[in-house]
Design brief:
The structure is a homotrimer.
Chain A: H1 3-20, H2 22-34, H3 39-65, E1 68-69, E2 73-74, H4 105-124, H5 133-147, H6 149-156, H7 161-165, H8 173-197, H9 212-229, H10 239-267, H11 273-287, H12 296-318, H13 329-347, H14 350-353, H15 370-406
Antiparallel strand pairs in A: 1-2
Helix pairs in contact in A: 1-4, 1-9, 2-3, 2-4, 2-9, 3-4, 3-5, 3-6, 4-5, 4-8, 5-15, 6-15, 8-13, 8-15, 9-11, 10-11, 10-12, 11-12, 11-13, 12-13, 13-15
């Protein structure tokens, strides 16, 4: 390997490891926000981590990243990807779509598998206490083979139809966060259908109880994980990868201040841990789709916008009586991810985007992009629309089929809290 | 340094850091499986971490890795290794046995010292609550100078007699896991001798109590640690190092599924955290001795075998009334490690092994190895036999001598649980 | 980028990430030593982490590291550093003072910002429970713009007046640890002024209560962080960076043994967790200012000196009735940091120092440095004196001004313990 290929693989595989830790960190985040007895959160995220590796290795990596069939889905039988080459050493070659940087199949597989895992962990916060463990386990398999793969194959796979149209989404504002929100919506709607059928007028809310220690470990691991998530998404170690570290961290820091301030103005509470932590997360989410396209100063501006958006979105979502979103999937990941994707058309600067592999991305509206920027906005809006709908439909169909097969997907959750058996086995996953 | 030498040192020293975290992670695993009040587990593993660095730096690195005296033990007075060169800058040169990859003495020292530390942490799970802290501290010094060094000098040191015979053990199925089991057996036998002398008919079992938070942090750190453990054991950053990331992670994921399934079939418990976590560990243990010799598909097969093996071994070990093995040293590390070493002769593929520095390793029986594979099996069986016996004898002799000097090595442990004093000082280590 | 520049940036940015984790680790250390209910410790250190990124990005990086005005303070308006280049891509160029190693502005920024953050986290242990959150937040901004920047601009910035005089401080015995102590002294004196004014005769001590789990996670993260702290401070990945890993880890391990032994001799307590952990920290602190200048054997000697120094210093500081130093800022960081800086003149060896970028540093007294070593000692003493005084004065003036504006900086802390409101909002930061 040349020096650059060595550095690229070393960088991306280490970044993959950091992202790998984020799935379990989401479990710790649930425990940190909802109380320390949520043993199911931890089992759930450990299971997701393992299932991601297994299912993606068998075929999910191909359905997302192999050369697509008609731009729609990766070829499941593509040789070097199908079970990572099986008994042959094909895994050691460069993967077709990242061969420019010399990334090996093994490197790229770990990196993207970690992304798939953490995306499902985000979806799963909505299943908390309410979805049967067995139903969720089967859903996971479908998810890694199909539901996660669809936006990835369309947008991140260079042979995907949206990628060919010019849609970009740097590290997954839509492919990860927006899609997690859409998939979660597909599940939560089914939960509500079953709750209504039981005669409930209101979906039982999940009880909050801050556990500061686990909340802290969670935000630390997630912040470290995002060091892999965004900077690693350059898929090379170059000058721009270093810039992305800074845009990512600056957006997080600004959003922390902005969200704490907004919460203070509304509630007069100083430094509520939930707003400090959710502010950091909102900044990380919003910058994700464009961290590789913008300047540090733009990251500052984007971070400052996060506070009012998150606090307002949380208020609106909180009014819904037909569902419970205790860890902020919709105001955080769905709203933040989509907002960030839209901002590409405003804040992108070609001189940054070129370094992260998108030399054709025009400047945004705020940087003189003009008509090209408006066209880019149109493409992004189209992509958001079709991807959100597709993921929502696939996710909802999956749980509908599971509900038919298993007499419903929901547990007997009541506001009294999750039932945990003495042996430590969760009665309901998460 | 050339690009390759830079990458090799960067990779191996970072992998060393990940392995370095595993010793304390074993302490957290004990807390996660046995309840959160086991303060001694944490002090014990912190002490092991520090003592490993100190004793290995003074002489233990030499007894394991310096050119051997007659193939049996590393020369303790070998210059560049004895106290890492003392006041001279010899530490900055390449170490003799890894100079092909340009690994510096400092790089290789950190990596192997982390291995020595975590091996003793595994041994120490068997001393839990039952061995005097002072006895364990002295045992540690002997361990790093001699007990750990023996299998390392025989198998990993290229001048060792088993290495010269052709024995291989990629990242320590025998040198780490099997040897930890053998050393633990040497201790637990002495504990039982003392318990019998006190008139006990049954060795008091150690109380189980799952603490999900710490269990989760432990498995996360151990999984991350194994990213260093196996892929770092290529002792270079090359194509094969990347393959090893995948074989390691796939085996872990498959074993998680296989062990959960096996436990479900036997107990009807869905997703018992102990089996989820121990399944992952079993997969990581079994793949360790051959992660650098096999394909991803072979890792899948090996992972699937783990569930039945672990659950059955745990049942057999659990019947023993004369000892308590609360964290699974024998069914996990001893059985899994040795099983993995035996599988080398069945699953190895020369095209993978060549990349991890073993171009002479023949294909396994399943890949047309024929007579050469059978001969390899014989060598591995021989190596397992002599190493297990040697380590067991050295470990048992050490505790016998300590028992004579200290009026026994055991504490007054009863089933009622460990006695922890109010000041936070453990009455019994671990 | 050339292979060396790739490796240097990869190394330093990863080391920066490890150091980045240390700020929150200090919060976990407070929780580990003082009990698990100290939610404010965690909010405080998360806030510090975010504020460091934000304030340093806007101007603090410049005041510390831009070409200085008269050797006294970095030019706040220096283009490439002011808000990291703003909307321009200047962040991707090499930073002027580290261009020899090809370190990019983004790389160097993350590394140094992480140092600034953890230094304030050390200062803040003294504010525990006693300082108003709002006062501390404003202090933080002043700290990153000015108080932290002063010793950094004088000693680490090659255009600083002390650096030009020949003063060296490898990874921050004075710039980090000594200065944290001096800044803390400036705060604690104001706290005592306010406590006296309330009629108190004794400053209410902060309650101790070991929480072994968090203490363990803290020491693990801090040890891992120091892997970034010291070896990263070579600001390049070369042979000496690898040596620094070993000098750092050996000093920590020896100091663990030495401190545990000293405590045992005085108290007959075996393996008190607080002395085990504080011993490791003391070793890491003492080696910090000279880890890149000394041999492994010198690190052993320095580590052995730590036990008596820490235990004695703790006893002396513990006698003070006018302040409470529950996590050991003064006996650990102030005393240890300054002691380490003084040891440069005794233990330095030019052949090591040259590798870490100080080819002009003379051998120490113990290695035949003679007159040059004595001169170096004089320079170090001068630097310690002026830097400690300057930081103390700046810190104290800042809190005096804040006290005037906010009717005092202290909360109504009593020995009964911190008041934590039910919503999880800390009444007093930390």
């Amino acid at each position: 390997m040349t020096a650059a290929v060595l550095a690229n693989n070393l960088w991306v595989i280490l970044c993959g490891l950091f992202v790998f830790m984020m799935t379990i960190a989401v479990g710790l985040l649930e425990v940190g926000e909802l109380g320390h007895r949520v043993i199911g959160s931890l089992v759930k995220t450990i299971l997701i981590t393992g299932l991601a590796v297994l299912v993606m290795a068998i075929v999910g990596f191909n359905t997302a990243f192999a050369p697509t069939i008609g731009g729609v889905i990766g070829n499941p039988l593509y040789g070097p990807g199908l079970f990572l080459g099986g008994f042959s050493p094909g895994i050691a070659d460069s993967w077709w779509s990242v061969s420019g940087a010399g990334l090996r199949t093994g490197t790229y597989f770990l990196f993207e598998t970690a992304f798939a895992a953490v995306t499902l962990a985000l979806v799963a916060v909505i299943a908390l206490h309410k979805m049967k463990p067995s139903a969720f386990a089967i859903y996971s398999v479908v998810y890694f083979v199909l539901i996660w793969a669809v936006p990835a194959a369309w947008i991140w796979n260079p042979s995907g139809w949206l990628a060919k149209l010019g849609m970009v989404d740097f590290a997954g504002g839509l492919v990860v966060h927006g899609a997690a929100g859409a998939a979660g919506l597909g599940i939560v709607w089914q939960i509500w259908r079953e709750e209504k059928a039981k005669g409930l007028k209101v979906s039982p809310p999940v009880h909050y109880e801050v556990n500061a220690g686990w909340l802290t470990v969670a935000i630390l691991l997630l912040w470290v994980g995002w060091f892999g998530f965004n900077p690693g998404s350059v898929l090379a170690f170059n000058d721009e990868a270093i810039v992305v570290v800074e845009t990512t961290f600056i957006a997080a820091a600004c959003a922390m201040v902005s969200t704490s301030m907004t919460a203070y103005i509304l509630t007069r509470e100083v430094f509520n841990p939930l707003y400090v932590v959710n502010g950091i997360l909102m900044g990380l989410i919003v910058i994700t789709p464009l961290a590789g396209f913008v300047s540090p100063a733009s990251a500052l501006v984007l971070g400052l916008l996060c506070g009012p958006i998150f606090v307002y979105a949380e208020k609106v979502v909180g009014r819904a009586k037909w569902m419970s979103d205790p860890v902020g999937l919709f105001p955080g990941h769905l709203v933040g991810g989509i907002f960030g994707v839209l901002m590409i058309a405003f804040f992108a600067q070609n001189q940054f985007a070129a370094g992260s592999g998108f030399p054709g991305l025009p400047n945004g509206v705020l940087f003189g992009g003009g008509g090209a920027a408006v066209k880019q906005l149109g493409i992004e809006v189209l992509g958001i629309g079709v991807a959100v709908i597709a993921v929502f439909v696939l996710s909802h169909l999956t749980v509908r089929v599971l509900a038919a097969l298993m007499q419903g997907i929901t547990t007997n959750y009541t506001e009294a809290g999750p039932v945990e058996t003495t042996s430590g086995v969760p009665a309901a996953l998460g």
